[in-house]
Amino acid sequence: MRANLRDPLLIQAVIAAAISFAHLHDVADAAGQGGWKAWCYPVSVDLLLVMAWEQIRERNGRPKGAPWTWFLLSMAASLGANVATSGVIDLAHPSPVLRIVVAGWPVLAFFGGSLLVHSRKAQAQDAAGAPQAPAEEPAEEPEEEEEPEPGPAPQTPNLVTYAEAAAVAGVAVETIRGAANPQRGNPPRLTKHQTPDGPRVDLDEVRKRYDLRPVGA
Fold first, then answer.
1. Please, which residues bridge with residue 198 across strands?
2. CA 106 from centre of chain
3. What span, in angstroms and rounded, lies between the C-alpha atoms of 42 and 33?
4. Residue 208: how many CB atoms within 10 A of its CB?
5. Where are the transmembrane segments (predicted)?
6. High-pLDDT (> 70) share of the chain, %
7. What is the pTM of this model?
8. Distance, CA of 200 to CA of 46 (rounded, Å)
9. Exposed, middle or buried, 40 (CB in 10 Å: 0-12/13-18/19+)?
10. CA distances from 83 to 18, 45, 69, 179 (A)
11. What is the distance between the alpha carbons of residues 62 and 114, in angstroms, rounded to a whole number?
12. Which runs of consecutive H residues, i.e. helices, occur in 2-95?
């Protein structure tokens, strides 16, 4: 069974918060803020730290604006208290600078918290007032083009030999041959169709040329 990494991290957070809380109390008490006032200082520092961190998370960690300033300031106050209680500073005889810093911290923390709250409201208003992108209109479906109706199939010519055409038209074979093969300079009177079996002419064209009615008409 794998151990949950959040449990050791939570224990570390509780230890760090408790020690830092006690160190801030000790520094405030040594600087002349005794009694209940000394316990308010660690609460004020931690609250400002949490508020600034929430703002940084909402802005995706971008190092811009007041959140990072107040986060680093509250972190410096907590870290400074930890260092001060290690014996670097004589807390039995605190310096005037330490007394001034501790005395001015509540106003500074209130000012920073107010700025963080108002910047969050301004950010929410900007997000609400930002113009929304217009919804994309659904793409129009292309109209189906109507396929043209097929026209009538071309008629296959009724090809016959010169002799057969001459028999139908009642003329000599040479007349049909001459109409299909005119002399130079003269247009043909009948269209000659060249086939593997020899030249042929269209019987319907022959009837039309010689004013003959089709069979059965």
1. 195
2. 47
3. 12
4. 12
5. 65-85, 97-117
6. 75
7. 0.51
8. 111
9. middle
10. 15, 16, 21, 126
11. 20
12. 6-30, 36-58, 66-83
Per the structure block, which two tokens stand in for 170? 């009642």
Predicted confidence band at 187 (pLDDT cuts at 50, 70, 90)? Answer: confident
For tokens 């038209």, the residue is 169
Residue pair 198/161 in contact (Cβ under 8 Å)? The answer is yes
Tokens 């000599």 belong to which residue?
172
Centroid of chain to Cα 153: 54
Of 23, 150, 143, 41, the closest CA to residue 81 belongs to 23
For residues 157 and 193, the answer to whether their CB atoms sit within 8 Å is yes
Mean pLDDT of the chain: 78
How many other CB atoms are found less than 10 A from the CB of residue 75? 15
Domain boundaries, the chain: 7-127, 159-209
pLDDT (tens digit, 9 = 90+) per residue, 70-92? 889 999 998 988 888 888 888 88
Q: How many CB atoms lie within 10 A of CB 138?
A: 6
Token pair of 6, please? 């959040």
The DSSP secondary structure of 169-213, one letter per residue, reads HTS-HHHHHHHHSPPTTS--SS-EEEETTEEEEEHHHHHHHTT-P
pLDDT confidence of residue 196: 78
110-113 own/partner pairs: CB under 8 Å, 24+ apart: 112/48, 112/52, 112/66, 112/69, 112/70, 112/73, 112/74, 113/47, 113/48, 113/51, 113/70
